[in-house]
Amino acid sequence: MIKRNEEINYKELNELLSSIGWGINPLSKLEQSIDLSWGWITARDANDKLVGFVQILSDGIKHAYILRMLVHKDYQGNEIGKRMMKELMEMLEEEKLNPILITKPTEESFYKKFGFKREDNGFISLFKWD
Ligand SMILES: CC(C)(COP(=O)(O)OP(=O)(O)OC[C@H]1O[C@@H](n2cnc3c(N)ncnc32)[C@H](O)[C@@H]1OP(=O)(O)O)[C@@H](O)C(=O)NCCC(=O)NCCS
Asked: Closest ligand 1 atom, CA of 85?
């Protein structure tokens, strides 16, 4: 089941993030991050286990930054990611928000399926990552 903005159990979410090495420590940091979010989408299996998550940070006006798009590693390849992305795109379209995301080149073909493409309008991305 795919849901928008359902109540988050932070420990459960951190277990999901940890399943692919994205766990947050301490847990209070994850709680603060979710509190700052514009929204999120969750996916649960038939036993109500949390198996997918994506987080959205937004100004609520124009821009929406997509973070932590993941499916539990034991559940990947079952179209859960596809269903979450469909819900995500509908959610942003309803609010006329433009999604932006940073990802590895290996994931590009996944996001292309949902209309994402490398920018070609002259804008550039700048980073300061240590
Ligand atoms: C990327 C990810 C969210 C995809 O979720 P998923 O549930 O496994 O994907 P789906 O089963 O819905 O696949 C949908 C389509 O995308 C393709 N796809 C799946 N994972 C892919 C990947 N990592 N790269 C490229 N294409 C991918 C599938 O082949 C499928 O193609 P099809 O519709 O032509 O058959 C999942 O693999 C994941 O959590 N990866 C680790 C975290 C990550 O790297 N997140 C993205 C970077 S921020």
From this structure: 12
Q: What is the pTM of this model?
A: 0.95
71 lines ligand 1 (CB under 6 A): yes
Q: What is the pLDDT of residues 57-98, one digit of tens each?
A: 999 999 999 999 999 999 999 999 999 999 999 999 999 999
Task: Check if the beta carbon of residue 89 is closer than 8 Å to that of residue 39.
Answer: no
* Pocket of ligand 1 contains residue 108 by CB under 6 Å: no
Domains located in the chain, CATH noted: 2-102 (3.40.630.30)
| C-alpha to C-alpha distance for 130 and 117, rounded to whole angstroms | 26
Residue that has been written with the tokens 């995301």 in this structure: 101
- pLDDT tens digits along 24-66: 999 999 999 999 999 999 999 999 999 999 999 999 999 999 9
